[in-house]
Amino acid sequence: MNAVELTAGAASVRLFPEAGGRLGQIEVDGTRLLRGEEFASLGWGHWGSYPLLPWSNRIPRGEFSFEGRACSVPVNREEDGTAIHGLVAAVPWRVVEIDERSATMEVRVVEGSYDVRGSQSFTVTETHLDQTLAVTNTSDATVPVGLGIHPWFIAGEVRVPADRMWPGDTPMPTGPSVPVDADHDLRALRVPPPMDRCFTALTDTTAEVPGLRLSWSGPVTQVVVYSGTPGWVCVEPVTMANDGFGLAERGIEGHGVAALAPGETFEVKYRFAWAPS
To answer: CA 245 → CA 64, 118, 248, distances in Å?
Structure first.
C-alpha cells in the first residue's frame, strides 16, 4: 500500500488512498493513536479510520425501500448477511490535491441503487487534524444517505455525550431509542465494557477517546461504540442510526437518514485534537 504522509511540528498523519481512502495513523511525539496498517492483514474493516459512505453500519440482506421503490446493495458481511459500512471503505480513492499539510481525495461509485461521488479533505496542524467528508448524488434519482467515520483507537477511557441508545442484543435496533442504562452510560469518562451499541440524543459535539478529543460539525446524530476487541475501542460519530433505512421505513423517529436529491451534496466535518507539545 502506498501511503501519503502529512506533517506539522511533532505530528504526522498517514493516509492510504488505495485502501479505501482511509486515515491509517496519527502519530504525535512518537505515540501512535490508531490501530495502524500493521493490522491490515485482518481485513479492510479492522484498522485505521475509514469513511462510511453512502450509509453507515448495516443493511439487512442488502435490501431496503425508499420512496416506494425497492433498493439493493451488495452484501459484504457473510456472518450476518448484511451490507455493512457503505461502498467506499475497500475501494481505491484518487488523490486530487496534496501538499505538506493537506490532501484531498475523491471516489466515484456506481453500485446497486447508488451512483455517488465521495470526497475527503485532510489538514494537519501542530494541535489537530481536520477531516471533511462529503457525498454528492450523481444519479438522476433522490437516494437515502448517511455519512460517518470508523476509527480504531487504543483502548482506554472514553466519553460519549448521549442520553439515549437504540435497544437490542445485536447492533440492529429492535424499536425506538431508550434512555442509556448503567451498563452503557458513557456520559462520564470511563473504560467501556464490551459492547457494540449505537447511541443517540447527543448533547454535545465532542467525544473523548484515548489520547484525543474527537469533535464534529454537521448533521451527526449518533455515535456507535464498539469495544469488543481487546486492546482497542471504536468511537464512530455518524449521521444515521444502525439500520437507519429500516427505522425510516417503519416510521421510527431519530433514524437520521437524509434524502439527497440529484446534484446535491451532504457533508460532515471532524476534528481529532491532541494536547500540544
So the answer is: 7, 20, 5
Q: Which three cell numbers stand for residue 96?
A: 486530487
Q: Does the pTM exceed 0.90?
A: yes
Helix, strand, or coil here: 23?
Answer: strand
Domain ranges within the chain, ordered by starting residue: 4-273
Q: Which three cell numbers mark 157?
A: 477511557
Q: What is the pLDDT of residues 206-252, one digit of tens each?
A: 999 999 999 999 999 999 999 999 999 999 999 999 999 999 999 99
Interval 16-53: pLDDT, tens: 999 999 999 999 999 999 999 999 999 999 999 999 99
Hey, what amino acid is at 4?
A: V
Report the distance separating Cα 250 and Cα 42, nearest Å.
36
What residue ranges in 61-127 does DSSP mark as E strands?
Answer: 63-66, 69-72, 82-84, 94-98, 102-111, 114-124
Nearest residue to 237 (alpha-carbon basis) of 224, 252, 248, 249: 224
Angle at 176 between CA 175 and CA 182, to 5 degrees: 100
| CATH architecture, domain defined by 4-273 | Distorted Sandwich (2.70)
Three-class SS of residue 249? helix
List strand residue ranges (DSSP E) for 112-157, in order: 114-124, 128-137, 143-145, 148-154
Q: Residue ranges of the alpha helices (H) in 31-119? A: none
* CA angle (146 as vertex; 45, 123 as ends), nearest 5: 70
